[in-house]
Amino acid sequence: MLDDFFIRAMLAGVGLALTTGPLGCFIIWRRMAYFGDTMAHSALLGIALSLLLDLNIMVSVFIVAAVISLLLIALQRRGGLSADALLGILSHATLAIGLVIVAFMTWVRVDLLGFLFGDILAVSKSDLATIWAGGAVVLAAVALLWRPLLASTVSPDIAEAEGLHPERAKLLFMLLMALVIAIAMKIVGILLITSLLVIPAAAARRFAPTPEWMAVIASLIGAAAVIGGLYGSMNYDTPSGPSIAVAALVIFLVTLLPLGRRPSEQALEREGR
After folding, report:
1. What homologous superfamily is domain 4-272 in, according to CATH?
2. Closest Cα to residue 71, out of 55, 91, 52, 57?
3. pTM beyond 0.85
4. Predicted confidence (pLDDT) per residue in 154-206, tens digit
5. 45/63 Cα distance (integer angstroms)
């Protein structure tokens, strides 16, 4: 019989995977993988500030990630630098500033490896409740924003003409990303959050007949990666967070078989007509 901590870890991972699936689809469609990586790196700055100011870590990470999102939008509107350049600056700057702040706090013992790679096996019952409650909020918000997000993904101009407010939808999407990263940090860690967002969605893209089905399949693939990674971690005594990422990668590699045109791409084109 499995131990309680393993059951909690599995439930936490599955709850997170169900949440990251739909968000990951929009990251793939909008080519925003580097944006997700930037927000994940900013989490370390949030952790450093929470330790320095004695704040709740999850709240601090969410605030920092949200501020980075707003800063990115403001810098993009000013022009002058490409989105990739801005993301590169913000990603490495926040990570470096966070590490410098942690280095100055000699009176605090910080488990950087735990924050960088997560510790899903240490998830408590309160963490589990936070993950599922936060995930339910994110999924409800994605359901409400689905039409404007999908329309603006296909064509921002058409979405604007239809009164769907694509810029507002984009901002809310970024805030949802910030919330998910704050929730996911303890489970898979700062450096592996993007893998759970991107890899399952990339694997699902090859099989989904519609965008909605791609979101569902991505969530299921993420859940399968969590379960497979945890069992692999238990059997081979490997780190749990990286094991989940490796399991997701294995599933993605299995999907790399010669296929026809991706069904989800056809569905996106139909949405744009």
Report:
1. ABC transporter involved in vitamin B12 uptake, BtuC (1.10.3470.10)
2. 91
3. yes
4. 888 888 888 888 888 989 999 999 999 998 887 788 878 889 999 999 999 88
5. 10
- Decide if 201 contacts 218 (C-beta within 8 A): yes
| CB contact at 8 A, 211 and 25 | yes
What does the alpha-carbon distance between residue 32 and residue 132 come to, in Å, rounded to a whole number? Answer: 25
Question: CA 242, CA 156: separation in Å to the nearest integer?
Answer: 36
pLDDT reading at 1 higher than 50 = no
The type of residue at 260 is G
Distance CA 224, CA 101 (A): 37
pLDDT in tens, 52-70: 998 998 899 999 999 998 8
Helix, strand, coil percentages, rounded to 5, for the chain: 85, 0, 15
Report yes or no: 65 and 116 within 8 Å, Cβ to Cβ: no
80 by DSSP, 3-state: which? coil
